[in-house]
Write a structure and sequence with these properties.
Blueprint: E1 4-9, E2 35-40, H1 55-61, E3 70-72, E4 78-80, E5 83-88, E6 94-99, H2 113-125, E7 138-145, E8 148-153, H3 160-164, E9 190-196, E10 200-205, E11 218-223, H4 227-235, E12 241-243, E13 258-263, E14 268-273, H5 283-291, H6 295-301, E15 306-307, H7 331-340, E16 347-353, H8 359-369, E17 374-380, H9 382-391, E18 397-402, H10 423-434, H11 438-454, E19 458-464, E20 466-471, E21 474-475, E22 492-493
Parallel strand pairs: 1-2, 1-12, 2-11, 16-17, 16-18
Antiparallel strand pairs: 3-4, 5-6, 6-8, 7-8, 9-10, 10-11, 12-20, 13-20, 14-18, 14-19, 15-19, 21-22
Helix pairs in contact: 5-7, 10-11
Length: 495
């Protein structure tokens, strides 16, 4: 049994390379004294979860360090957390949360309903805070008594509870002077012990946790960017859990102590089109680019760890429909569409963060060449991608993993970097949000998703499956959607 248990993960959109993994050296331990190291690719640039974008913070801090009124399981079920229970009025306009007793922040101070009200009100009122828009339907947040918080809405919001499981619902301490850029003060089962920028983040068990104590003494998130190196390190005995295993390397674990599991995700590997920029503002061009791609060949090339997607909603999310028939593999039709659009001999640039490798971009270059499109690949640092593509919308095509669940709202937001502006989609999305019946909400999403797919607003190359190699003696490591959230409260090491 090794001392340090490392999980190496490839997350959505960024990577910082390390000189090496954090070394061991402590005596062998298991059970509650174990130290578990979780290796990830995606390192945050700042720890302020209220102001810093990117999945890296959600992955490490939510559920582990910070908690909200409610949270969600791997299966997408919403569960009470800081709230002991909640109730929704029949008209969908009032949400009442009863707050658990004896909750303390990591600095030892007791959590009060004033902290809850202040935390949510800050997000609602400050457009500079992440997920501010998710509380736009909330008109008031009040402490009804010492144990109850009530949210009043101007109109129903079918996504409100789900939104509260993320950053919008996290409870921080009012008037706390912690520098959230480099430290944290939450209520979760782990405290933020240390951040070695460019290397690792260490969480320590919160022995004063108000709920069930974590089963390990500490968790070290180690940042490393090469999946092959991760497999080699695991096989050499330095790593004990490897997430987002490269499917083409899966067989290397055959006959070893590792069991490789296959998990579902909401990871949507998206070939984004700049819908607001010519010639991609022409639906014929966008459709041609989709019909030119053999999506099954792409999945084969990545080792089979994916399922085909024809639209913007993955199977785990409400509103899913199989829309693969919208974009059959028809390169001849693609050529004709380009000719009809006056886009023959088209040259485009694909901007892609450099963590994604060359497999998919090279396949796209080849596929487009067959229909007369020249594709230049510009592999960039994630910070460059954020500035050029995400912020300034200066791109033709882009390829990234949109891993967030229930993020269809991006397609109803004309200011998002996709540049997609369709009033019918926006109307249906709003109708979905305002529905008090979950089935109605799902149907509205389904209608909107079909429009987006038939507009060929992007090409969703595949919905990823995630492979996790778990060594004997480790239990409770999340295997579904580990790129989005890693709730490690059940993580344990046995002999």
């Amino acid at each position: 049994m090794r001392t340090r248990y490392v999980a190496l993960g490839v997350a959505a959109v960024a990577a910082l390379l390390l000189s090496g993994c954090t070394g061991g050296g402590a005596p062998e331990k298991s059970g509650k004294d174990a130290s578990v190291s979780v290796g990830l690719v995606l390192e945050p640039t700042d720890l302020d979860i209220r102001r810093t974008s990117g999945a890296a913070l959600d992955q490490v801090l939510i559920d582990n360090v910070y908690e909200g009124l409610v949270s969600r399981t791997q299966e997408g079920e919403i569960v009470d957390t800081i709230a002991s229970s909640h109730e929704i009025s029949d008209d969908g306009l009032t949400y009442t949360f009863d707050i658990n007793h004896d909750i303390t922040f990591h600095n030892g101070d007791a959590l009060t309903v004033e902290d809850v009200v202040w935390s949510l009100t800050q997000v609602k009122d400050d457009p500079e805070l992440r997920d501010h828009a998710l509380l736009e339907s909330v008109t008031s947040i009040e402490a009804t008594d010492d144990d109850t918080v009530t949210l009043t809405l101007s109109e129903p919001d079918s996504n409100l509870l789900w939104n509260l499981t993320g950053r919008a619902g996290l409870v921080l301490q009012k008037d706390d002077d912690t520098d959230l850029s480099t430290a944290a003060n939450g209520t979760g089962p782990f405290t933020l012990d240390e951040w070695k920028q460019g290397d690792s983040i260490t969480l320590a068990r919160n022995d004063d946790y108000w709920g069930d104590a974590a089963k390990v003494a500490s968790v070290v998130f180690v940042y490393i960017g090469d999946t092959t190196a991760g497999v080699n390190a695991a096989l050499a005995g330095d790593l004990d859990v490897l997430t987002a295993v490269d499917p083409n390397l899966r067989e290397q674990f055959d006959g070893t102590e590792f069991a490789v599991t296959e998990g579902k995700t909401t990871d949507k590997y998206t070939l984004a089109f700049n819908n607001a920029k010519a010639p991609l503002d022409d639906v014929r061009v966008r459709k041609a680019l989709r019909l030119a791609v053999d999506h099954s060949a792409i999945i084969d090339a990545i080792g089979g760890a994916g399922v085909e997607m024809g639209g913007p909603i993955p199977p785990l999310d409400p509103g899913y429909e199989d829309l693969t028939d919208v974009r059959p593999y028809e390169p001849k039709i693609a050529e004709k569409l380009l000719k009809d659009a006056g886009a023959e001999d088209l040259s485009l640039t694909l901007t892609v963060p450099n963590i994604y490798g060359t497999t998919v971009p090279n396949l796209l270059v080849s596929a487009y060449k067959k229909v007369g499109v020249t594709l230049k690949v510009d592999s960039v640092e994630f910070s460059t991608w954020l500035n050029d593509v995400y912020t300034n919308k200066d791109y033709d095509l882009s390829f990234v993993d949109h891993l967030e669940p229930r993020d269809f709202g991006n397609w109803a937001n004309p200011d998002y970097y996709f540049g997609y502006d369709n009033p019918d989609v926006q109307k249906l999305y709003q109708e979905s949000i305002r529905a008090t019946d979950p089935d109605v909400a799902s149907e509205k999403l389904k209608e909107a998703a079909r429009i987006v797919a038939e507009d060929h607003a992007a090409d969703w190359l595949y919905n990823a499956l995630t492979l996790t190699a778990v060594a004997e003696g480790i239990t409770g490591f999340p295997t579904d959607s580990p790129n989005a959230r890693l709730d490690l409260s059940s993580l344990a090491v046995t002999t």
